[in-house]
Amino acid sequence: MVIALVATLTSAAAPRFWVADLAVHFRLQWAALAFAGCLILASTGHAGWAALAFLVAAIQALLCAPFLNSRTPAPVERAPSAPLRLTAINVWYRNHQFQRVIDFIARERPDVVLLAEVTAEWEQALAPLNADYAHRCATRGRRGTGLLLLSRWPMQAAVLPGFSDVEPAVSATLRVNERSVQVLSVHTSWPHGPASSALRDRQLALIGEFARSQTGPLIVLGDLNVSPFSPHLQALLAGGNLRSASQGFGWQPTWPTFLPPAGIQIDHALTGAGVFVTAFRRGSPVGSDHLPIIIDCVW
């Protein structure tokens, strides 16, 4: 109960302090922990402490509630484009289960595939995908990992200036049946300290600036290293006029696969005005510490 209480109080400072922002990602876990504490304290006769634990659980649960709902998709206002399926996978550079990723892509048959933390070994192992994905763009950062963007549809791609020298972001314009859509592929910094957290926040701000500059349909795709509970992601959505593709499809934890009870969603698809998401779900494990995400949309 004390752990959940401290985490709840700390979360209030999430917009200003990186440690508090880490705490805010685990609201569901704090709610469960406090509720368990409430049951134990109540059963052992500590009514006052049980009431406090219940209050902590209720606060966290109420803050989680807007992100856990499910809804039936609304009708499209105008004639839609052809359906487009995208998937994003942080393959994890330490993972060597290449065939599982290839099999997953073959099974799901996405039109667009974003792979993060791709090494030279990964690029070579994924060569069998070239037959189905004739259009590709690869980046490589100073640590030897990067993004690999694959598409069945023609695309014009370029590195987004100033985003990162570790895993440069890719901006691509896809041409689908004479209609265009912009896809921004990203992998932000891992917020394990004050400097890397500040870098991630600057990268999120850059994504927002890019989104505001777009006039056509836009999809932001990738590992953002931030959960829906974070005020930094909420600021990106508001400032970039974006919407989370997972909104309305329930809670979708994608990391860490090695510790499911601690699962949070840090892999995202964000959509701009005019993009309508018909489905969002997680894919099956591929040997990574992340689960893939799969998005179906029209625009």
Rg, Å, rounded = 20 Å
Separation, N- and C-terminal Cα atoms: 46 Å
Silhouette: globular
Q: Please name the CATH topology of the largest domain.
A: Deoxyribonuclease I, Chain A
- Classify the secondary structure makeup into a structural class: alpha+beta
Strand content: 15-25%
Largest sheet: 6 strands, mixed
Level-2 CATH architecture of the largest domain:
4-Layer Sandwich
Query: Quick one: how many beta strands?
Result: 12
Average predicted confidence as pLDDT: 94
Unreliable stretches: none
N-to-C SSE series? Answer: HHHHEHEHEEEEEHEHEEEE
What is the strand arrangement across the widest sheet?
A: 3-4-2-1-12-11
Number of helices: 8
Topology of this protein?
Layout: H1 2-11, H2 18-24, H3 27-43, H4 47-64, E1 84-90, H5 98-108, E2 112-118, H6 120-125, E3 135-138, E4 146-151, E5 155-159, E6 170-176, E7 179-187, H7 194-213, E8 218-223, H8 231-239, E9 243-244, E10 267-271, E11 276-282, E12 293-298
Parallel strand pairs: 1-2, 7-8
Antiparallel strand pairs: 1-12, 2-4, 3-4, 5-6, 6-7, 8-10, 9-10, 11-12
Description:
The protein is of the alpha+beta class and 299 residues long. It has helices spanning 2-11, 18-24, 27-43, 47-64, 98-108, 120-125, 194-213, 231-239, and strands spanning 84-90, 112-118, 135-138, 146-151, 155-159, 170-176, 179-187, 218-223, 243-244, 267-271, 276-282, 293-298. The chain folds into two domains: 2-67, no CATH class; 84-298, Deoxyribonuclease I, Chain A, CATH 3.60.10. The protein has eight helices and twelve strands. Strands 3-4-2-1-12-11 form a six-stranded mixed sheet. A six-stranded mixed sheet has the order 5-6-7-8-10-9, with no helix packed on it. α1 (2-11) packs across α2 (18-24) and α7 (194-213) runs parallel beside α8 (231-239). The longest helix has 20 residues, at 194-213. It is globular. The relative contact order is 0.15. The mean pLDDT is 94.
